[in-house]
Amino acid sequence: MRSNMKPILLAALFVGLVPGAVLAQEQDEVEVEVEVEEITGCTVEVDPAELPAGEAAIHALATLSENLGPLTGFEAPEESGIVIADAANIPRAEMANEGEEEVAPLPIELGAEANVFTVWLSTEEAVPGAFDVRFTTAEGYCGARINVVTAGETGDDGT
Fold it and tell me: Among the four 25, 116, 131, 158, which has the fewest Cβ within 10 Å?
């Protein structure tokens, strides 16, 4: 009888601990998620104002209305199809000196001023329309509106 008690006790201990371990893991996952809040009055001006659909990488300048530290991310509605461009699709600039190693471009880089950023966006899967997007900083996020137009119909080229 004694030999049967050990497996039963181990099984009871296992059943008692596993739900607690799963619950603790779920709580850890919940605590990791950080809610980023909108910064009231913060907006982003995106230049160019209209982006052509179907492009793998489009260079744009994002100017935040306030200096809120580095730009850390970009979010757009899934149905818009607008995403941060894949680094492999960003054109590489020629190096000034021969023999210099090429540096891989980044999809988000600091611009000439503290609140201006170079952003490479992909509209490869985008559909025409106006979309509310947000640019994330370490302090929160700022909203912008991006207009996606059919390729060849942007106002920048005079059409």
Answer: 158
